[in-house]
Amino acid sequence: MSRFLAGILILGLVLAGAIGARAATGELNIYSARHYDTDLALYDRFTEETGIAINLIEGESDELIARIEREGVQSPADLLITVDAGRLWRAEDKGLFQPVTSEILETRIPGHLRHPDGLWFGLSKRARIIIYNKAQGRPEKLETYADLADPSNKGTVCMRSSSNIYNLSLLAAIIEHQGTEEAENWARGTVANFARPPQGNDTGNIQAVAAGECRISLVNTYYVGRLMGSDKPEDRAVADAVGLVFPDQDGRGTHVNIGGAGVLKHAPNRANAVRFIEFLTGDWAQRAFSEQNHEYAAVPGIEIDTPLNAFGPFKEDALNASALGRNQPEAVRIFDRAGWK
Predict the structure, then answer these.
(1) 198 and 84 in one domain?
(2) What confidence score (pLDDT) does residue 317 get?
(3) Residues 179 and 38 grouped into a single domain
(4) Is the same domain home to 98 and 139?
């Protein structure tokens, strides 16, 4: 072989090695809208087990999605992690994810908690439940989400705003199950039962129900679990003052939503991103989501020591979470027409 050809061969090997090194670098760049100490512990554990260093950017979901979109093909982001399928859909709708095929993820994560085409995967769950003031007693009609719109509950309901992603996703589920007309009837009926204009967050509405400012509200289990597990006696007293209803147990089951992640379209460290999502479905990580952050594990059958155990088992809606995003634009229009501010 001539020196010239040998030089070309060596140069080719060097270039191939450089490209391969970039694809298999020992780093993982995460953009996360989750701001929990639990997640930091997960990152540390993953690095300890794999040697892959995690570079973290935190922010609000919509801000991170806009940033990834601006960065385009130059984006260093490998993975977007956020809460609520509706937010994952916003990134999906902008074409920011790439499909992932993984036997581990398809085996561990139930089908309704992951995107049908592998664009994102649910990693933890929260149920959207009805709470009521124990001192005032459980209203006679309070078994289903539909009961929030029953005239017997007029003047008793506290809610978050219609722009809240949790409310948008619930309405999106109602649209999928019952159609647009019935979903709008529900929204209008619930608005007619408001005790006050929509305001605050889930914790604020739990406190309002506990204080008797309103009789019933709609909140995520995560927030009740956080109060139950608090070191502050006043927080535990608030949790103890409210009763819980897991709606539609004789029907389709209680609405659940997810915290989840998707691999980004231009991820420079794709293999590491997939490996990290797989890591998050492991038993240790799933217990961490529940025991440290009061979420339900997405992977079935994991034994967990958490205040959520006091709620007991419940039937969950098996609707694929992708519908929560797909129906989001219609949910916005319905809330507007119903006068839900």
Answers:
(1) no
(2) 97
(3) no
(4) no
Alpha carbon distance 61, 28 (integer Å): 19
Residues 193 and 161 grouped into a single domain:
yes
This prediction's pTM:
0.88
Domain encompassing residue 240: 126-255+323-338
Specify whether the CB–CB gap between 317 and 255 falls below 8 A: yes
User: Does some domain include residue 213?
Assistant: yes
Q: Same domain, yes or no, for 93 and 180?
A: no
Give burial (CB, 10 Å; 0-12/13-18/19+) of 12: exposed
**Residue 326 in contact with residue 89, Cβ under 8 Å?**
yes
Q: What is the pLDDT of residues 7-60, one digit of tens each?
A: 333 333 333 333 333 343 599 999 999 988 888 999 999 999 999 999 999 999
Structural domains counted in the chain: 2
For residues 29-51, one letter each, b for 16 or more C-beta atoms within 10 angstroms of the residue's C-beta and e for the rest, the string is bbbbbbebebbeebbeebeeeee
| CATH number of the domain bearing residue 176 | 3.40.190.10
For residues 42 and 305, give the distance between their C-alpha atoms in angstroms, rounded to a whole number.
Answer: 18
One domain for residues 183 and 329: yes
Gyration radius (Cα) of the chain, Å: 23
